Amino acid sequence: MPVSQPTAYALLRTFGMLEFELKRIPEFTGTGPYQSAKANWRAVEDAVDRLPTPTFLDRVPASARTKLLGGTRNRPKVQVVATIQGRNLTHFRELPLHASDARALIEAMRRVRNNLFHGGKEDPLEELYVGDDEEWALAAGEVATLLLDLIQRQQLRP
């Protein structure tokens, strides 16, 4: 995902802090392979969906809401695997976001983080508009920062 180094670092750092804080709350902690701890994003989405609009949705900057929820609500793209002639090949496809704006913001934030962290979107043909991925990463960073603030202030609880 072609984004500037400062933007990439800021998003990954904030997301890492967010996951650390989530895993300190038992109800926001899930179990991965080999009993590894992971964030329980479904529980987080449930909790955010219950928040009053002024507490979460109204605090997401309009530019971030427009970027993450605008258009046909099927981006950022998700990396998927297709088996062609016995070989696993990856490509990106559009996938609808949740109907709830609160859940969709979290879902989009996670997709951006996954695309950035796991790579695969470095192909210039994947970025149809120059600078578009930078905008996605900045918007995702806004959501991650807000979630982290809500958790640290104990406003986001299971």
Q: What does the model show?
A:
- The chain is α+β, with helices and mostly antiparallel strands and 158 residues long.
- The protein has one domain.
- Helices cover 47% and strands 13% of the residues.
- It has 5 helices and 4 strands, in the order αββααββαα.
- The strands form 2 sheets. It has a two-stranded antiparallel sheet with strand order 1-2.
- α2 (41-50) runs antiparallel to α4, α3 packs across α5 (132-152) and α4 (101-118) packs across α5 (132-152).
- The termini are far apart.
Main attributes of the structure:
alpha+beta; 13% strand; 47% helix; two-stranded antiparallel sheet; 158 residues; two-stranded antiparallel ribbon
Task: Determine the fraction of residues in helical runs and give it as a percent range.
Answer: 40-55%
Number of helices: 5
Number of domains: 1
* % residues in beta strands: 5-15%
Low-confidence parts: none
Order of strands, main sheet, comes to 1-2
How would you briefly describe this protein structure?
The chain has 5 helices and 4 strands; from the N terminus they run αββααββαα. With 158 residues, the chain is an alpha+beta fold.
Layout of SSEs?
Layout: H1 5-22, E1 29-31, E2 37-39, H2 41-50, H3 62-69, E3 78-84, E4 87-93, H4 101-118, H5 132-152
Antiparallel strand pairs: 1-2, 3-4
Helix pairs in contact: 1-5, 2-4, 3-5, 4-5
